[in-house]
């Protein structure tokens, strides 16, 4: 099902480096029930970095 485009879940890891040389990693996951078009999109975002502003 997932290969045919009927999956209700997506996850991604995003990496960025600032102009100051700081590294950051964002883990993003979202989910939506593919059988219910009126269902909300829910998910989580986790940002990891060595320093905080």
Give the tally of β-strands. 3
Can you count the helices? 0
Question: What spatial form do the alpha-carbon principal axes imply?
Answer: elongated
Q: Class by helix and strand content?
A: mainly beta
Short account of what is shown:
This is Coatomer beta subunit, putative. The chain has 53 residues and is an all-beta fold.
Characterization of the model:
The mean pLDDT is 86. Strand 1 and strand 2 form a beta hairpin. The protein has a three-stranded antiparallel β-sheet, with no helix packed on it. The chain has 53 residues and is mostly beta strands. The N and C termini lie far apart (42 Å). The radius of gyration is 15 Å and the shape is elongated. It has strands spanning 9-17, 23-31, 42-49. It has one domain. 0% of the residues lie in helices and 49% in strands.
Features:
COPB1; elongated; three-stranded antiparallel beta sheet; COPB1_appendage_platform_dom; mainly beta; 53 residues; single chain
Write the layout of secondary structure elements.
Elements lengths: L8 E9 L5 E9 L10 E8 L4
Antiparallel strand pairs: 1-2, 2-3
